[in-house]
Amino acid sequence: MPRVGRHRGLRRAAGHAAETAGCGPLCDEGRAYVERLRASGVEVTERHHPGMFHGFFSLPAYLDDARDALADEAIASTASDGKNCGGGGVGAG
Length: 93
Fold this sequence. Notes:
It is a single chain. The protein is of the alpha+beta class. It has a domain at 17-80. Helix content is 31%, strand content 13%. It has three helices and two strands. It has helices at 27-39, 64-71, 73-80; strands at residues 16-21, 44-49. The chain has a two-stranded parallel sheet with strand order 1-2. Helix 1 (27-39) links the parallel strand 1 and strand 2 (44-49).
């Protein structure tokens, strides 16, 4: 997780999209990061999935939350590039 704190360059950051999973190991950190971005004036679209776990994106055939998350254009484009799982396909959460 990037350290945001009082980083002055954050005000110039591009908009962000964030999906957090309530049972994910970095849920609290992810939500805090979103708040720090917002406090620095960065536009952030956030969706929280309280009952989901890390990696839920990889199961759209089984989970409504995964299908909903992947329907979001910004999230789907990131996931299709494999940026969230370190390889081909999806795997964020």
